[in-house]
Amino acid sequence: MVAAAARPGLTFMMAADSISLPMSPPASPSRTIVLLSLAAFASASSMRVMDALLLRLAGDYGVGLASASNTVTVFAVVYGLMQLVMGPLGDKHGKLRVIATACGASAVATLACALAPSFASLLVARAAAGASCACIIPLSMAWVGDVTPYETRQGVLARFLLGQIIGLSVGAVLGGFAAASGWWQWPFVALAAWFLVVGAVLGRAAWRQPSGAHEVGGHLLANLLEVLRTPGVPRVVTTVFLEGVVLLGALAFVATHLNQVRGAPMPVAGAMFFAVSAGGVVFAIFARRFVPVLGEARLSAWGTVVIALSVLGIAWIPWLGAAPLTCFGAGLGFYMLHNTLQVNATQMAPTRRGAAVALFASLFFLGQSVGVALAGRLAEAIGTGWTLTASALAIVPVGLGFALSAAKRT
Q1: How far apart are CA 143 and CA 157, in angstroms?
Q2: DSSP assignment of 303-356, as one string?
Q3: Which of 90, 95, 199, 269 could form a disulfide with 255 if both were Cys (CB 3.0 to 4.6 A apart)?
Q4: What is the DSSP secondary structure assignment for residue 248, as one 8-state letter?
């Protein structure tokens, strides 16, 4: 009964039962998942650590704030694009081996950020860090898909993603403390050491077992097109792209809304991101219990409803004290929906799982970028409150549309 409730019944998932895949789990999959989660923590922290350092960079390097923000932009752009390259590499050479190698490269690139003598060299180092970090989370998800039965995969993925969820918050905090310290480069040294240790331990495990790699015909573009031609895949990747556009773009202005409309000091408004992350952590902890009970269709439907109500609460509840609860709800609902999409992504194209998950992640990242740009224009035109309202209303057809289609195929 549990398996039937959790299985979405997509065509590509039904077909996967008849495909013989190179399954080569290590002696201790749980230990490897912990290592992958630790790597995801460092990757997510690297993405967010620069946010609070922009004013400090502008002063130390003698550049404008807009130029300083390029250290965030260049990481994000390269990170999104390189996922499409790294996914097929993981399929061909072994996901764990590529992740371990990427951790080593990330250690070097992150240390280069700390030692950059000029702003130009810092930009180059940040671009290199974005490229090397790009594969860690998508290929980790794909590896979990290789070694975990579909019926239990959503709970396992949720626990793996604890590293990413916590890393996003810790990265922002590290940047904030570094901005007020005498030597702002110390978080990069700490993250480089983290990457190095995790990569070494993970590499030792990866090279002691069969790689799990398999020959994938065709070039990069051909493989991605083959994934897109698989039945059911366009529905999943379109949904996650729209999720990034309509939801993540507006959520980037929550702190601004709470500061300008509710009068919260910016440090307090920015700290609400912890409440969003807390919602994700609670989902990850309890996913194994309520995912089988609800099933994917109801989980994504309820997640959509929780998101919409929470974002409306952020926009219009006048009491600042309600913000932690509404932000928590937004995080909980988001991970209910997004984790369901993620587990679908791990089964979209089993013989090209690395490429499929990388395509999924890249489109989600691209959707966020488009969403932030659109939400910024809306915020200037109609205010942050109505921008958040538009986001809450727009996520309803996106999430419920996916939930209804999943229900029909179950």
Answers
A1: 10
A2: HHHHHHHHHHHHHH---GGGHHHHHHHHHHHHHHHHHHHHHHHTTS-GGGHHHH
A3: 269
A4: I
Is the pTM higher than 0.90? The answer reads: no
CA distance 360 to 341: 9
Give, to the nearest 10 degrees, the angle between helix 323-345 and helix 266-316: 80
Which domains occur in the chain, in start order?
28-208 (1.20.1250.20), 218-410 (1.20.1250.20)
pLDDT of residue 193: 97
CA distances from 209 to 94, 146, 181, 203, 205 (A): 10, 14, 44, 10, 7
What integer pLDDT is reported at residue 341 of this predicted model?
92
Question: What single-letter amino acid sits at 180?
Answer: A
Q: Does the structure show a pLDDT above 80 at 7?
A: no
**Tokens representing residue 67 in the block:** 């130029």
Model pLDDT for residues 370-408, shown as the tens digit of each residue: 887 788 888 888 988 999 999 999 999 999 999 998 887
What is the pLDDT, as a whole number, of residue 211? Answer: 53
Give the Cα separation of 222 and 94 in Å (integer): 19
Which pairs count as long-range contacts for 105-108, CB under 8 Å and 24+ apart, including other chains? 105/131, 105/132, 106/42, 106/43, 106/46, 106/132, 106/133, 106/136, 106/192, 106/195, 106/199, 107/192, 107/193, 107/195, 107/196, 107/199, 108/132, 108/192
Which are the contacts of 378, defined by CB distance < 8 A and separation ≥ 6? 250, 386, 387, 390
For 32-96, the DSSP string reads: HHHHHHHHHHHHHHHHHTTGGGHHHHHHHHT--HHHHTHHHHHHHHHHHHHHHHHHHHHHHH-HH
* 364 touches 243 (CB < 8 A): yes
